[in-house]
Specification:
By secondary structure, this protein is mostly helical. The chain has two domains: about 90 residues, Rna Polymerase Sigma Factor, Chain: A, CATH 1.10.1740; about 90 residues, Orthogonal Bundle (Arc Repressor Mutant, subunit A). The chain is globular. It starts with 10 loop residues before the first helix and ends with a helix.
């Protein structure tokens, strides 16, 4: 089913880029760069790898631009390309460990308004959550949970990116949350 043209804010630039307007493609790249970079960073081993994969994503999107059919938002299509590149990267990198963002990086993402004690408590919760994600979720559950919760994507977008049914995405997110809740409740109870 085709989306209505007015729904995708990138569609005008996509059409112009398809017609050869390099400035339109640059505008698309500028709007999506940070989102794609963050999406990849959460699944890669380093900032440098994430930046390299981001560049590869946009090169691949440019090469395949003529094949974009407007059945999904352009940003979803680009994130699908990124997901495929990340999947290939992870398959080639046996030393890869999920998630790749260090605790220090996560601390810098806080709002900076917490006092030091609150920041330490927040950091402890983040570390506990990271350990739960690393140790107790399968790659499929981690991936679905990351896309929905950290990327803020809706379930349909995630289904399109992962090329799985909508119900499967919902099930994976539900199972991931349940597993983490059970694990973190158990861990918290055993420490208290």
């Amino acid at each position: 089913m085709k989306r209505l043209p007015g729904i995708d804010p990138d569609l005008a630039d996509v059409h112009a880029a398809k017609a050869g307007d390099s400035a339109a493609f640059s505008a698309l790249l500028n709007r999506l760069h940070l989102r794609v970079f963050r999406f990849i960073l959460r699944q890669s081993a380093s900032n440098q790898d994430a930046e390299d994969l981001t560049q590869e994503t946009f090169l691949e999107a440019y090469r395949r631009l003529a094949t974009f059919q407007e059945t999904a938002r352009f940003s979803t299509w680009v994130l699908g390309i990124a997901q495929n590149l990340v999947r290939n990267y992870r398959n080639r990198s046996p030393q890869f460990r999920y998630p790749a963002i260090s605790s220090d990086s996560l601390l810098t993402l806080s709002d900076g308004q917490n006092n030091p004690e609150e920041q330490l408590q927040q950091q402890n919760r983040i570390n506990q959550l990271r350990q739960g994600i690393e140790q107790h979720l399968t790659p499929e559950l981690r991936q679905a949970l990351t896309l929905v919760t950290l990327e803020g994507m809706d379930y349909q977008e995630v289904a399109e990116i992962l090329e799985i049914p909508l119900g499967t995405v919902k099930t994976r997110v539900f199972r991931a949350r349940k597993a983490l809740r059970e694990r973190l409740d158990y861990t918290g109870a055993s420490q208290g």
